[in-house]
């Protein structure tokens, strides 16, 4: 087997192939001549595990040119490039860490006994662990009436300073309009339509019109409401202008409102986080993402997918408190940095001790040291899950995703007996954390990952 790539997935894949007795050749960053020299007749399959979809595409085309029809396993995030590559080279297996790991991450967010949720099938399928093994059933979405009620309840709720200014100004103007209409109707005995006209004039700060028969207290109240109207109008205008000029990612009204109950908070907006948010939305589970970089590449995709994104630092306890963690279903810390994920988990558990936390992790030593102090949640090593899927692909099996079960990583759909692919990776066969031959399943995991 030939493994190309200077990534942790590539290094772990070489270690996994070696442990199963397969000869593996690793080329971190080969040029065209090196790749041509390595692609001898002894090579049965090639794994292209590089950073960047364009680089992976170039290596795939070059490998197909040098060895037409050779089995290729390529990690690609961009689905458009993946579809075009599959059309050109049907002998190529396309996958990505996001597609491999998201079903297991959703299962971890749901909690026991759910192991994974297959969102690609129609309808979605829930894979659960039982005393007898593994059970699969159809996903049951939330009741539609309850879903609509929660969506309506979440409308017109402030989520930041701009939205508070806008809603304060709008609410003040509406309250002033109502009070003036009631005063004109009940105190001055005006017709409802005439009273509404007088009220709108006061809100617009142009005066109530003819007031020859109005008592003095009414004129004083109208004057005060006009002054308040100036303040409310300024607040409302400032909020509207700020929202139009800023790249907002959470709406006050509409599908991108901030959820308030039974939702999943996803920290980070990388490829895995974005796919996780989109999968949760397809299941009808409310979700909100937290991203600290206002220039993150996936913000545009999140907006187009209707995913609310809060631009803030998730390590900030004030930010976490505003996300309603006490009423949330789970928090998934999916940042690229393990230490940041641990910090987010600790801060979240300080606010909501019973919160279900799922962490993305790859540095087993860090997670092991932190878990020695207290339980911080379920740990998902996406690299390990990806390695297991790649090894299956090199052996002729193409799992859509993998998930952990009883200390083992299981492929879905299961590998046929004649492919030579491992049925599952066992923790007992893994080397020590931090070694070059990285683990498939480590003792630092709760149930999800390596």
Fold and architecture overview:
The chain is an alpha/beta fold and 450 residues long. Among the domains are: 2-95, 3-Layer(aba) Sandwich (Rossmann fold), CATH 3.40.50.720; 160-245. The protein contains 15 helices and 17 strands. It has helices spanning 8-19, 32-38, 53-66, 79-88, 97-110, 144-153, 161-187, 192-203, 216-245, 271-282, 299-304, 317-322, 338-351, 364-371, 382-394, and strands at residues 2-4, 25-27, 45-48, 71-75, 92-95, 114-118, 125-130, 133-138, 264-267, 287-291, 309-311, 330-333, 357-360, 378-380, 401-405, 408-412, 424-426. The strands form four sheets. The chain has a six-stranded parallel sheet with strand order 11-10-9-12-13-14, with helices on both faces. It has a five-stranded parallel sheet with strand order 2-1-3-4-5, with helices on both faces. Helix 4 (79-88) links the parallel strand 4 and strand 5 (92-95). Helix 1 packs across helix 15, helix 5 packs across helix 10 and helix 5 (97-110) packs across helix 15 (382-394). The longest helix is centred in the middle third of the chain and has 30 residues, at 216-245. The protein is elongated, with a radius of gyration of 29 Å. The two termini are 22 Å apart.
Write a short abstract of this structure.
The chain has helices at 8-19, 32-38, 53-66, 79-88, 97-110, 144-153, 161-187, 192-203, 216-245, 271-282, 299-304, 317-322, 338-351, 364-371, 382-394; strands at residues 2-4, 25-27, 45-48, 71-75, 92-95, 114-118, 125-130, 133-138, 264-267, 287-291, 309-311, 330-333, 357-360, 378-380, 401-405, 408-412, 424-426. α1 (8-19) crosses α15 (382-394), α5 crosses α10 and α7 (161-187) packs antiparallel against α9 (216-245).
């Amino acid at each position: 087997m030939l493994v190309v790539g200077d990534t942790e997935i590539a290094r772990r894949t070489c270690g996994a192939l070696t442990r199963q007795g397969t000869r593996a050749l690793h080329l971190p960053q080969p040029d065209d001549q090196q790749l041509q020299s390595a692609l001898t007749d002894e090579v049965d399959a090639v794994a292209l595990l590089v950073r960047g979809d364009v680089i992976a595409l170039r290596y795939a085309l070059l490998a197909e040119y040098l060895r037409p029809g050779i089995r290729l396993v390529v990690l690609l995030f961009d689905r458009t490039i993946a579809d075009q590559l599959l059309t050109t080279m049907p002998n190529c297996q396309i996958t990505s860490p996001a597609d491999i790991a998201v079903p297991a991450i959703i299962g971890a967010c749901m909690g026991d006994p759910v192991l994974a949720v297959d969102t690609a099938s129609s309808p979605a399928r829930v894979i659960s662990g039982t005393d007898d093994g593994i059970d699969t059933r159809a996903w049951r979405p939330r009741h539609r009436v309850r879903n609509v009620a929660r969506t309506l309840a979440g409308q017109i709720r402030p989520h930041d300073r701009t939205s508070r200014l806008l809603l304060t100004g709008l609410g003040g103007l509406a309250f002033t309009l109502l009070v003036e209409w009631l005063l004109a109707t009940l105190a001055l005995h005006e017709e409802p339509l005439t009273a509404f006209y007088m009220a709108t004039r006061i809100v617009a700060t142009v005066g109530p019109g003819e007031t020859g028969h109005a008592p003095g207290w009414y004129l004083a109240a109208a004057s005060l409401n006009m002054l308040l109207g100036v303040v409310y109008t300024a607040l409302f205008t400032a909020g509207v202008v700020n929202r139009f000029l800023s790249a907002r990612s959470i709406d006050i009204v509409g599908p991108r409102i901030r959820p308030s109950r039974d939702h999943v908070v996803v920290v980070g907006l990388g490829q895995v986080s974005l796919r996780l948010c989109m999968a949760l939305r397809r299941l009808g589970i409310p979700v909100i993402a937290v991203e600290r970089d206002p220039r993150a590449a996936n913000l545009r995709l999140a907006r187009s997918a209707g995913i609310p994104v809060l631009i803030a630092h998730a390590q900030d306890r004030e930010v976490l408190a505003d996300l309603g963690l006490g009423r949330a279903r789970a928090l998934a810390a999916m940042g690229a940095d393990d230490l940041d994920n641990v910090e987010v988990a600790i801060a979240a558990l300080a606010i909501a001790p019973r919160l279900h936390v799922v962490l993305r992790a790859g540095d087993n030593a860090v997670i092991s040291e932190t878990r020695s102090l207290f339980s911080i949640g379920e740990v998902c090593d996406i690299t390990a899950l990806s390695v297991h899927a790649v090894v299956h692909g090199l052996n002729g099996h193409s799992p859509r995703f993998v998930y952990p079960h009883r200390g083992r990583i299981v492929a879905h759909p299961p590998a046929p007996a004649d492919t030579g692919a491992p049925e599952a990776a066992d923790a007992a066969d893994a080397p020590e954390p931090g070694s070059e031959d990285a683990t498939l399943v480590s003792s630092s995991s709760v149930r999800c990952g390596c």
